[in-house]
Design goal:
Radius of gyration of chain A: 18 Å
Number of strands of chain B: 0
Oligomer: heterodimer
Strand content of chain A: 15-25%
Strand content of chain B: under 5%
CATH superfamily of the largest domain in chain A: Fe-S cluster assembly (FSCA)
Number of domains of chain A: 2
CATH class of the largest domain in chain A: Alpha Beta
Strand order of the largest sheet of chain A: 4-7-6-5
CATH architecture of the largest domain in chain A: 2-Layer Sandwich
Shape of chain B: globular
Largest interface: A-B, 29 and 40 residues
Structural class of chain B: mainly alpha
Number of helices of chain B: 10
Shape of chain A: elongated
Number of helices of chain A: 3
Order of helices and strands of chain A: HEEHEHEEEE
């Protein structure tokens, strides 16, 4: 923090807003709820992040991007701390971010899962097709191209699409 | 509770997930259908991610400077503490899926209890793993019902998998001094506490799937003490060779 007065929390978040999720490039790591906090002190900036899934391979890339974003503004040194509690949930994704997701072609997540232990029955809630907005859709697989998405198919416009799955 | 006892407890948690995650990854490119190939790889990724966090914490509790990579790639099978269930070769798809049902149901109960661990890091890891395990249980339960209540062939294979795997399920719930110490200190939980719940939940799925639980018989054990089947050594040889051939390599 040699060059100027300590940046405010708002300024730090403004910079963090420029860091996009590598798998969902329409959303920033702030909108996704991955960034939990950012504080500037005499010894530098501390950014606290939480992973979406335990094995999310994008976390390393996200850390690098956060460092790059601050380096570009000549702010540093940056320390990145990872927290696991409270566990990340899709409920943290804002309504505005959900609209961006849908416009990008990914159905936004529904409410986070219940605690039902053995959910043998297939879920009955339908997911709206992000392309034609039909509810006549079916889940093809709970597991999709990344840990955070499931695969669906729209019976109306005959398009496969992804859903950001609720956790 | 001593640091070494906490370390051993964390190794059990981490090794179960590392070994099963690696086994599942063997399906990558070999799944029966594309969606299933992706699903098994996703579950493998969750398990290996959980293992990395648990083994990192194990290394911190041990305090000898070993991180998750050192613990994964530079221990021999005799020092692994996973249950025998997770190290068995993948078998056919029915075998893999029935094992997933057995382990995921166990993991959901275990991680659910560990959300209340006195160790904040472990509680946090557990609260994340619970969410993942819920998806894993649902996935395997649906498949077990599909296979068990399916064709003559799929039913026979699923029943054979249940018969072959059942004798490895007892070890998951056997508690020794390391478990009871961990439970007493608040770090961990005694797995025998949720054995009945596990049996009820797995039993319900098997019943729905028209599969039967084999009669009570001798339960295999040894993994928690480092006495493994021959299969683990072969698996580790493949898993560890790159890290051991090129120590410290990064990419």
């Amino acid at each position: 923090m040699v060059k100027r007065a300590l940046p405010s929390r708002e300024e730090l978040f403004e910079i963090l807003e420029s860091v996009k999720d590598p798998e969902v490039p329409v959303l920033s790591v702030v909108e996704l709820g991955i960034v939990r906090d950012a504080v500037a002190g005499e010894s530098g900036v501390v950014v606290t992040i939480t992973p979406t899934y335990s094995g999310c391979p994008a976390m390393h890339e996200i850390e690098l991007e956060i460092r790059r974003a601050f380096a570009a503004e000549a702010i540093g040194p940056v320390e990145i701390r990872t927290t696991y509690s409270p566990a990340w949930t899709t409920d943290w994704i804002s309504d505005a971010a959900r609209e961006k997701l849908e416009a990008y072609g990914i159905a936004p997540p529904g409410p986070a899962d219940s605690s039902e232990l053995i959910p043998l029955r297939r879920r009955t809630a339908t997911v709206r097709c992000p392309y034609c907005k039909s509810h006549d859709t079916q889940q093809r697989s709970v597991f999709g191209s990344t840990a955070c998405k499931s695969i669906w198919f729209c019976n109306k416009c005959r398009q496969p699409f992804e859903e950001f799955k609720a956790i | 509770m001593s640091d070494s006892s906490s370390f051993q407890y964390l190794l059990r948690l981490g090794d179960d997930r590392l070994v099963l995650g690696h086994r599942l990854s063997e399906w990558c490119g070999h799944g029966p259908i594309l969606e299933e190939d992706i699903a098994l790889a996703n579950i493998a990724l969750d398990l290996i991610g959980e293992a990395a966090l648990l083994l990192k914490l194990a290394g911190q509790l041990e305090g000898k400077g070993r991180n998750e990579d050192a613990l994964s790639f530079f221990r021999d099978s005799i020092d692994y503490r996973n249950a025998l269930l997770v190290e068995l070769p993948i078998g056919d798809f029915a075998f893999t899926i029935v094992r997933q049902l057995f382990f995921s149901t166990f993991s959901l109960l275990q991680m659910g209890a560990l959300e209340r661990s006195s160790n904040g890091d472990l509680a946090g890891i557990a609260s994340k793993a619970v969410k993942e395990a819920r998806y894993h249980v649902r996935h395997s339960a649906q498949w077990v019902v599909t296979l068990g209540d399916g064709t003559e062939e799929s039913h026979a294979r699923a029943q054979r998998a249940v018969d072959d795997l059942w004798r490895y399920t007892g070890e998951l719930f056997m508690a020794d001094a390391i478990d009871t110490d961990a439970a007493a200190s608040g770090l961990g939980v005694d797995p025998s506490a949720f054995a009945d719940q596990w049996r009820a939940q797995v039993g319900e799925v098997l019943h729905t799937a028209k599969l039967t639980i084999p009669p009570a018989a001798y339960m295999q054990r040894g993994g928690r003490d480092g006495r493994h089947t021959e299969h683990l050594g072969h698996m580790l040889a493949e898993m560890q060779i790159v890290a051991r051939s090129h120590p410290g390599a990064t990419w």
